[in-house]
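Hi V.,

You were right to ask for the full record rather than a summary. Here it is.
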Amino acid sequence: MSRTGDINEAALRAEIVRTGALLYARGLAHGSAGNLSVRLDDGSILVTPTNSSLGSLTPERLSRVSVDGRHLDGDPPSKEAFFHLAVYEERPAARAVVHLHSTHAVAVSCLCHADSSNVLPPLTAYHVMRVGRLPLVPYFRPGDRALAEAVRGFARGHKAMLLANHGPIVAGATLQEAVQAYEELEETAKLFFLIGNRPAAPLTCEAVEDLQRHFPS
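Predicted structure:
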């Protein structure tokens, strides 16, 4: 790897560690649940190790995984690294993926939905801009490789998706962008439960289309 590549990888490792600590401190991650990844220039990914707490990551122990799923170095990767790779394959512009088990988003994933193609209403402009339509991916047990194909199908048209009885996956052009979109998703899920059965006024179709024209994903 070139000297520039070494510097870039070191910076990304440090960013993953800082981001994991921030998400843990904010209560968006707990225990050893959730995982983060970034894509390197050669197509391999840095991903958080299996059974690791996002609140206590170290740069040198992050896993590096090849584009075809081989463990290259670092600690053993998250057992969910395979669906990170599926997202990257379908979204060439994505350079980061965030998957957490935050409380309100997971609660939404446990509900029955009449329309699984978009399981949160467009309550705010920022949800539309940063998250967009949020489809529900059918349930698979943790670690089931069949989940990768399901994720791949949804990733083609969505930067975010919700795994049934599990939690969201959010992709972004940078780790910061993916985290900000994830936070917007969790805040919209909070609003969804706070509003409950009260009469609400989500954004109209015309308002959503206007946002999509001005802020294409």
